[in-house]
Amino acid sequence: MNVNRLEKPNDILRELYKNSWLYLMLIPGLVYFLIFKYWPMWGLVMSFQNFKPHLGISGSDWVGLEHFIRLFSEPQFFKLFRNTAVLALYNICFFFPIPIILALMLNEVRVELFKRSIQTVIYIPHFVSWVVIVGISYMFLTTEGGIINDLIAHFGFEKIPFLLSEEWFRTLITGQTIWKEAGWGTIIYLAALSGIDMQLYEAAKMDGANRWRQMWHITLPGIRGTIIILFILKMGDFLDVSFEQVFLVLNTMNREVGEVFDTYVYTKGLTQAQYSYSAAVGVFKSVFALVLVLGTNWLAKKAGEEGIY
Amino acid sequence: MKDRSLGSRLFDGANYLLLTIVALVMILPFIYVIAVSFATPEEIAQRGFILFPTQFSLSAYAYIFSTDTLLRSLGTSIYITLMGTFINLFFTSMMAYPLAKRHLRGREKILLLVLFTMLFNGGMIPTYFVVKDVGLIDSLWALMIPGAISAFNLIIMKNFFQQVPYELEESAKIDGCNDLGILFRIVIPLSLPAMATIGLFYAVTHWNTFFNAILYINDSSKWPLQVLLRDIVMLANDRFGDQSAVERSDFHPITIRMAVIVFATVPILLVYPFLMKHFAKGAMMGSVKG
User: Fold this and answer.
1) Model-level pTM?
2) The CATH number of the domain covering residues in A74-302
3) Considering CB atoms only, which of B11, B117, B268 is closest to A211?
4) If B197 and its partner were Cys, which of A29, B122, B239, B279 is the partner (CB 3.0–4.6 Å)?
5) Does B8 sit within 8 Å of A29, measured CB to CB?
6) Domains of chain B
7) What is the pLDDT of residues A21-31, one digit of tens each?
């Protein structure tokens, strides 16, 4: 059989020799992935141990599922899960549709210069760091001299402690995400929109469809595949709510609704040195995310859509 | 071709107006920050919202450069951005090139190995210990090496390399050039839009690097700009400059923060227009399956 012929050691050697440069070029990258991506995955076994850094994984005691049992029985667990999930839901409901809407709006613009100017402007916040985005929001929203609160006071209302309140935390996070990423998010939809066959629009116009109907019957179905793929990928980030951002916005006044899995891992693991326990929290989060991606992908395929794999 | 009905014109009008408002809302905060960083204390006291200061003052900028704290962080950030992006592009292209060769045996397995890291990873704590075990804690390499190849960018680059005409590579091979030479002499020069786009993505990540520095760099003299920025803007640490200037109080304390933000943001925005024309094209490569 063909396979047997190729599996002969001589052939493999010949193949290696013929493409020796290609295989050599793969080595640095492979070494990188093994050290910095797969070694940490192996490191996750520490969540079944009482890991001590000076003993390493081979020398630490095994404790089985103790850390997972602790996580699930802790009252913190419900709070973390709720906070993370609610933030993710906010993101899906209020952020996810905005790049789609913006892309559809941009797609309707006929004046090329106007379109390009708007694009240039709305991409900018994406390139700015979270520190700057959160920092600017701080200076705008603080009750001590922030311009928004000065305005509120000017009109005779009571100042609102946006930064230090539990009620405003989620709105603040979602608003910042929209500001930073909504414009950039349009790129992929605009790419998909440019692939729609113009003849479809011509035909629809012949049939007397106005622009709303064209959008509904041609444009939206044309980018449905892209929307679904991005939605599946979003599910993978479900528990990954932009960690840097939450870390920066978090303070003692909003921790009750703001603490999410990632910030909890950081606090427990690296500031309180409970390595194994925090690694267990990380494992739970990663596995949950994986299940969500595979589950959404399975559902999408079941509904007759193209999944991510 | 043009549809000139009343409904259609109303639609256009509302569309243009809304897009303009969205763009303004997104950009005005930055303009405000830049304006205030140049404003005098009197003007800040008199006018609430400044988009264009009537009197320019550079005293906030003079203050932030009165000591070398900010300059040192700036140097660190420039270094990790240039060096880090070079490392990224070098390693990513070197791995992407063989993976773009469909005939290469074992290619599928390696691609799977790469793709899996996009779905599952070890997370913060185990990664921290790997970085520690390889001895990178408190070294600037910790901000460059652990992120040397992004799986996502690797796939984009691989897809781009697959579009380079094979005949060009073939003729170089006949001239006795090896695969490494072909990559650097033929494939990369032909893929400049992709290199520019991916290079920009990597460079932005390095310039904006914050949390990795919090994790891996304890020594405050090695802090990149963003970490110092948080210290100044959010923890309200205004005392990093020459204190005699504060006593003269020829600037409003808020202008210092604004000036630091401008300083941390402007370099990225200066490169952006030059790369804009490339990345509108390059960013679409990712959406091409292959």
Assistant:
1) 0.88
2) 1.10.3720.10
3) B11
4) B279
5) no
6) 69-220+282-287 (1.10.3720.10)
7) 999 999 999 99
